[in-house]
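Cross-posted from the bioinformatics board.
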Amino acid sequence: MFLEKVLTVAFISGVLGAGMRLAMPILFAALGEVFAERSGVLNIGIEGMMLTGAFCGFIGSYLTDSPWIGLVFAILGAGLLSLLHAFLSISLGADQVISGIAINLLALGLITLLNRAIFGLRLIPVSAANFESIAIPGLSEIPILGPFLFSHHALVYIGLILVPIIYIVLFKTTFGLRVSSVGEDPRGAEAVGVNVGRIRYICVAIGGVLAGIGGITLSLANLSLFKESIVSGRGYIAIAIVMFGGWNPVSVLGAALVFGLVDALQLYIQSLGITQLPSQLLISMPYVVTILFLIIRFGSSPPSALSIPYIKEN
Amino acid sequence: MGEGEGDDDIVELNHPPHKGVILFVHDLKELGFGLLSIITALSIVAIIISIAGINPIEAYQALIKGSFGSINGISETFVKATPLIFLGLGITIAFRGGMWNIGGDGQLLLGALGATVIGVYLPSMPPVLHIALSLVGGFIFGALWAAMPGFFKMRRGTNEIVITIMLNYLATFLIAYLVSGPMKDTTQLIPVPQSREIVESAVLPRLIPLTRIHSGFLIALAAVGVVWFILERTVLGYEIKAVGVNTDAARYGGINIFNTGFVVMLLSGGFAGMAGMSEISGVHHYLLDGISPGYGYLAIAVALFGGLNPIGVVFSALFFGALNVGAESMQRAVGVPTATIYLLEGLVVIFVLARHILKRRRRSS
């Protein structure tokens, strides 16, 4: 009975397609966190930066009817917030965990205040122009593979293309080598002339920008609305996925997809309306998977200087 | 735990700032800094409120009137401060011991569950006994919810930050499931998702008639004494602080890092669980969805503003409690959402951090 409903082409391609879309917000945030962490800065604040991106992006699109201008808003909003984390943790050498928590509190308060001030409390949420689905001609017709890979909104394609680009940047360019050297041995890097502070600033900013794109993926692509609980832990989940993916963008994509597919699966099973399965059990599945991700560790170890402030010796 | 020695190598604990941010009433300089950071944060929020098109003076008038303008307001401040004291103590122990316990919310919910189970399903008995049992139940449930992240942190070096946050979500779903399923009160005319009421003997007595101040506040003060005693007067407390200041030195000094770290998490979760107990036995009297509006995160601000010091936590919790009560009347009066308080807290934490760093720099130069 259950299997009959599940083992259909429609169900499987539905789950795969939704899984890809649900993986994207986390993929963007996690790719950004890879930069920050490889340079030695832990950014717990990406939860708040995703929220900021989701809101600013929504406002941008609401005002201009263009989700692409929304994207610019999201990048600016989350990017600015990431500079606050950079200032506290790099320039001041503050504790990165506490700085991140402070930023999450700050973002939640600020965005809630602005959201209520602009839109008020409404029963029916306001909507804005969102990213439309672009089916790739021909390829999207392939059964199962088409819905999984080739009929999505633009941000999915951008996310997938970013993975190899970021891989090359991190592992095949001078900049990438500098990022690693700063994250592994900042003193040694400084000795050979690398500007530790500048590299870390750039990486944290990239992290903020990508978290912002992850946020707008939630509010203007996967959904078409903004609510204050829209992120609900996805920033933290992205941090878990970075650890599980061993700070490597390709493995991070794999981990994000696992997460997205589990999330899609639980949503689809919920829609089957099986009353014996409590909905709360299904909703909790992605969070359980995240905990398993954290507990099951693979060989790779974090950058040696992760979350240790670097203070120049004079 | 002899076999744990090898594993200690992979565990590096955290060393959060605690020296130099202690908000102590007798230290005028620190008190002055505390007041200055609050005033600065309030000014920044005022600017943002006015950008949002709301008169900040009206908003703050409503805030002050709400928290100090009436007996009810003042008593509500104590009601709100009570769980914050318990949670702040839990965070204080964790951070002093080098563990990032961000799971206060989940541990509170589990503590609330423990107290509800003991209050609803055990028969009536002498109140002292029933309340003591509820307290123990809350503590144990909270401690157990923190045990898993503590264990994996100490055994495998698993990052405790994200696990404790994930467990917050799981606790929310668990409580939502229980109050709409197995524990649902079906005797009501229109059944809503909540548990049955705890029996009379499990209810924490009110302290002042016609207000909601309950004896949980006194238990919270007693807990402050207990935590102070543990940290300042026991071997365990010495070990907790030693591990929190420098893991390596503590290890070479012969302290069992695994045991200490694990006990830190149990204690931290246990005190957070007592917050849940006091909310059930003192305020709600039955279990329902949403009894913690983010108290676990708020408590981090409370603990840091209190200088990770048990006595500082009391004043800090009263301050943030008053702020919360005031924020509710601010929302009613001028429509500023209560969540604005988070903005204020974020700013206060940033100032505390900045202060800590400036002090450290001055000392080293």
